[in-house]
Structure formats: C-alpha cells, structure tokens
Design brief:
single chain, about 475 residues, alpha/beta, eight-stranded mixed β-sheet, 13 helices, about 30% helix, binds zinc ion
Length: about 475
C-alpha cells in the first residue's frame, strides 16, 4: 500500500457528541469490525433512537468486539441478530459473564419501554441467546485475527471488571485503538488503565474531559462521614447504585468500615437480584483480574463483599421484609439513576420522610430522576407517582468509574510517542472539545473531535476526515 493511503476507516455511529450509545465501525481493505453496540441513555433508561435501524449493513460485518458490559456499550448488540449478523463476538471472560446477566436483566425493561411507546421490541429472548452463543472470549494481550486482514488486541482499562480497550491492526501494520471507558486511578479493586503504546491513532473517551475530581482522595472519609450523619438522623438510608462495580465498591468499603468500628453497625440490604449476581461474578474473577492488593486480599479472605450485617434480598418476599426492619437501615438497590427498579419502591416510601437520607454515588444523566433529586427537586415522579422530597439528599462525587480531566490527559501522554493523532469521543461536546484542545496544547499532538456518522481515514501518519 502506498504511503499515506488509508487502510482503515473508522466511523462513529454512537458515542460521538455524547457519552452513551458506543458504536464504532472499523473497515479494512477486506474486513469489517464493529466495536460496541450500546443503547443511548439519558432522560430515559433507553432513548427511542436505539430502536432505529442500523445505519450500516449488518450481514457484511465480520466480527463484533464488546469493550465492557455496561448497557451503553452492549445493550443494543443482540439486535444485530435480528438484522442478520453472521460473525463472532469477542470480549474478555468477565465481560461475557457480566453481559449475560445485564442483557437478560434489561430485557423486560426494554420490552416495557417498547410496549408503552408503541415500538417493535429491540430484540427478544432468542436474539439474546443467539448473541450469547456467538461469543468467543479473548484474554488481555492475546492478538487474534477476527476479520480478513484485521487483528485485535484487548487491554485492561480499569473501569469495571473485565473492561478493555481494543487495538485494531490492518495487514500493513496501520492501527487504531479505541480506549472505551477509562477507569480513574488509583482504584480500590481494579488495576490502572494500561496505555496503548502501539497504535497510530487512538480514540479516547471524554466523559470527564473538562472536569476535575478533587473529592477522589477523600472519598472514603467522606463516605464514612456522610453515612455517620445519616445514621444519626435515624431514618432509612437509600443508595441508588449501579449493579456493576459501584455496588461492589460500596459493599467492600462499608463492610470494612463497619468491621473496623469506624461506622456504627446497622443492617445493610443489597436489594437487587442483578447486583447480587454481579457480585458473584466479581468473586469468581477477582483473584485473576483485581489489582495486586485486592487480589492478595481476595486470596486471604473468603469473600471481599460480605460482612455480618449485610443481607442479600434476592426474592420479592425477602425484599418486602426490608420495609419492616427498624431504622436506621441502609438499602442499596438499582436503578443507579433512579429510573424505577427496587430503589424506586423505597424512594416512594422514604423520600417524604425528613429523617431519611438519599446518597448518590454515581453519575446522574441530565433529565434522569436521579439528576432531578441531585439538583434539589422538591418532588419527583417515580413509576408514575408524584413523590414529595423531604429526605436529605447527599451526593458523593469521588466514586466515579471514569478518569477525570487530568487523568485522561495523563493517559493520552502515556500512549506517546507512537500515537500521531487522537480522536475524542464518548463525551458531551464541550467535554470532548476541551480534552481535544488540551491534548493539542500540552502534548503537541493532533486531536479531532468525532462527529456522528462522519468517517475518519486512519493512516500510519495520522488521520484525515474522509471527505
Ligand atoms: Zn462504562
């Protein structure tokens, strides 16, 4: 191939100008790979555009790579089966286990959404089973040809268990990597994100491209103090939590605080069948995938996520019993942005009570019920009911699973000198622009903000817009 002639084209069909809906098509001279196929989330658990047709020819895709098990990266993937996808699907072993849980769990919520909006189902149970049967697991650092003339390699990103970046390499050596979501360093359970030091071009995420996270250092004491005050207030304590990673972190931290006497012991309920199952996956793979310190602890302790006052309430009957337990008590449940789920049930009961406390530990998308609560709404609509808010609402920012502004820049720098250009995506426009500007100014490397549907030509010398 001539110098400067592109051997790879990358087109973002989601995750450009927005955080969610990760979906990138990479085309080589002979093969085509799709990286991620997530749903768009915002005001809704799943935005209606996720129900649209795919803007590319699905049967001609050779392979799909899933970077991690969050719904905005995998939630739309079973829909590919409806459109005639014939290839294999690649991901790490923990991602396979987590994706299976998360897809089965979200199926009924997505079905309900389709029914209320008069849309055809996103996919059905058969599509999920067919999709799962196509999965081939790939370990980090294992290079594999997955499409004619295209090989991939996954690396740890320390975002959630099993999360990966993917580097795609063409026959002539031209390569592009997609970081997907990058974890914040240092993390309690996971290793730091590994730099990609062998890609010509890197697509980097930018969720917190323009924000610092000064609370990170103090997050454990802040969690402890917030819980202490909530316990003193005497009411129920509600913690809406994402099932993957955040819940396990909270169990780990709160368990340690109660066992060491830093926190008074009160009953803690993990009221989420999904989070209970996800925690089992963390136990299963932790000894292999956690960072060195957490691995060592996992090897010495029977269970990192269990402690004497923790009750797992999987069945509906067990969950109902929580209502009879005396206050103060802590209830950890989904959905993470209060889009219904079991936390919705408890919010309806306890938000009107001034002795109660609602503690947010995760990202709340604009327009979500969680964001309204965070912004101080005096009433919210939960499951169609208007609920008065008299409870104390607290937000802890230090627990984000994403690298912040300086973390992203440091990550980009760690990938140099091989990388000649960065593509900035997976963030809101202002955030992506800010990160691109900083990469250009501080690292003196070209950085382009991605636009949805606009193809980018990748060459060994860098990038160019296709038209
Ligand atoms: Zn993610």
């Amino acid at each position: 191939m001539e110098k400067g002639v592109s051997s790879l084209t990358l087109t973002p069909y989601g995750g450009a100008g927005q955080v969610t809906g990760s979906n990138f098509l990479i085309e080589g001279a002979r093969g085509k790979i799709l990286v991620d196929c997530g749903i768009e989330q915002g005001k809704d658990y799943c935005e209606s555009c996720s129900f649209d047709d795919f803007p590319y020819d699905v049967p001609s895709l050779d392979a799909v790579v899933i970077t991690h098990a969050h719904l905005d990266h995998v939630g739309r993937a079973p829909r590919l089966m409806k459109y005639g996808f014939k290839g294999k699907v690649y991901m790490t072993p923990p991602t396979r286990d987590l994706a299976e849980l998360i897809l089965r769990d979200s199926a009924h919520i997505l079905r309900g959404k389709a029914e209320t909006q008069g849309l055809a189902a996103l996919y059905d149970e058969h599509d999920i089973e067919a999709f799962l049967s196509r999965i081939e697991v790939l370990q980090y650092h294992q290079e594999r040809e997955v499409a004619p003339g295209l090989s991939i390699m996954l690396r740890d990103t320390g975002h959630i268990l099993g999360s990966a970046s993917v580097r795609v390499k063409a026959e002539d050596g031209t390569s592009v990597a997609i970081t997907s979501d990058l974890g914040a360093s240092p993390a309690v359970l996971l290793p730091d994100a590994e730099p990609v030091t062998d890609a010509d071009v890197i697509l980097i995420e930018s969720v917190y491209g323009d924000r610092q996270n000064p609370e990170r250092e103090h997050r454990s004491p802040m969690l402890r103090d917030t819980l202490k005050k909530a316990i003193e207030r005497g009411g129920a304590i509600l913690m809406p939590s994402f099932s993957i990673e955040r819940t396990q972190l909270m169990l780990y931290e709160i368990g340690h605080m109660m066992e060491s006497g830093e926190l008074p012991t009160i009953p803690v309920f993990l009221d989420s069948p999904l989070a209970i199952r996800v925690t089992s996956v963390y136990k299963k793979w932790g000894k292999e995938y956690f960072n060195a310190e957490a691995r060592q602890e996992a090897n010495q302790t029977h269970d990192l996520f269990a402690f004497p006052f923790l009750k797992l309430t999987e069945s509906r009957e067990e969950s109902e019993m929580i209502g009879h337990a005396e206050n103060p008590k802590l209830i950890i449940a989904g959905a993470g942005m209060s889009h219904g789920g079991r936390i919705g049930k408890w919010e309806k009961i306890y938000l009107p009570d001034p002795e109660s406390t609602l503690i947010m530990v995760g990202y709340q998308a604009p327009g979500s019920p969680g964001r309204l609560l965070q912004d101080g709404a005096k009433k919210v609509i939960i499951d169609g009911h208007e609920v008065k808010v008299r409870a104390k609402v607290e937000t802890l920012h230090g627990w984000s699973g994403h690298a912040d502004r300086d973390g992203l820049l440091a990550y980009a720098e760690s990938c140099l000198p091989r990388t000649k250009a960065f593509l900035v995506g997976l963030g809101e426009p202002a955030s992506a622009r800010f990160l691109a500007q900083r990469i250009h100014e501080y690292l003196n490397v070209r950085a382009l903000v991605l636009a949805k549907g606009e193809p980018i030509q990748i060459t060994k010398e860098g990038v160019s817009r296709a038209h």
